[in-house]
Amino acid sequence: MADSDRGYISQYSTEDVGISILVGSNPTDADGAVTVTMVNTDTQSMLLTRTAAHVGIGDYQITLTPDDTAVLGNYTATWSYLLSGDQKTFQASFAIGGAEPAYDALTPDLKVMVDSVWIRMADMFDSPSGGPNLQTWAMTNFNRGRIAQLARIALGRLNTMAQPISNYSLDGSTGTFPIGQWGPLLEQLTWIETIKHLRRSYLEQPSWEGASISRLDRQAYYDRWGEMLHDEEANVEAQLSNFKIQQMFLGRPSILVAGGAFGRYSSINRPFMAARPRMWFANAW
After folding, report:
1. Are 110 and 89 in the same domain?
2. Is residue 80 part of a domain?
3. What is the residue-level pLDDT of the chain in tens, covering all 285 positions?
């Protein structure tokens, strides 16, 4: 399986991937074409070699098709270009994993939130691949898809755990969650639901009565995760209070001039943020 902390692309999906070239903190165009080569690092086979499209100052991207994402495994993308006459290369790693409907249906911003929760376990050492031991067993399904499902539970809790009641959904069918402003709150609640999920997995660890077999005892994990859950629940209280206050319109200033709202408070001045492809950043100093 894929390394825990690699970028994740679902099998048979269409995905835009790109690179942003920065000199210091300034976006900068390459001297000419930017090419990308992708290799399956498990088999050392070539996936593709393409010229990237120039989509903005310093921004280049390609679109991976379902044929490109058909084979599961770990991949390295190597971007090559000239900058001020010097040859430059940049490498980034990603994994193509099994299709996960709950994860695949998320917007790019929500996928970033799920990935952030996943990364919190990437350096754990209980399983051979990194992360909690329940990833090890063949019949388990602990992955980004499961965390996406837990995010839906977390959002349901957020909607109903205090007044005023809201009806946000992950797919926007009953209300689009303001991920740009309140993403950290949803991420924290998703992390809490993930901890609860881990505790459930350890709830029925058996005890070997009358046996002298050496083994790794994971029964104490339930209590240990419970201690962390207590701390994380305490951390979210202030975030939740601020969120609910805003939902009651108690935390928003208003300016009325001759019966109307003007300036930066006007509804016509809300910025629109278009979805961006998965981007890597190459810094040249």
Report:
1. no
2. yes
3. 344 457 888 899 888 999 999 998 899 999 999 999 999 998 999 999 999 999 999 999 999 999 999 999 999 999 999 999 999 999 988 889 888 888 888 888 898 899 888 888 776 666 666 677 676 666 567 888 889 999 999 998 888 888 888 888 888 888 888 888 888 999 999 999 998 888 887 777 667 766 666 666 677 778 888 888 888 888 787 778 778 777 776 444 444 444 433 333 333 333 333 345 666 666 665
Per the structure, how many domains does the chain have? 2
Cα–Cα distance for residue pair 132/121, rounded to 1 Å: 7
Interior angle at CA 238, CA 174 and CA 115, nearest 5: 60
Q: Among 45, 74, 97, identify where a domain stops.
A: 97
Which residue range forms the structural domain that includes residue 157? Answer: 101-206+217-247
Joined tokens for residue 195? 């901890």
Specify whether 138 is located in the same domain as 188: yes
Q: Give the distance between the most distant pair of CA atoms in the chain.
A: 83
Rounded to 10 degrees, the C-alpha dihedral 262/268/269/270 comes to 130
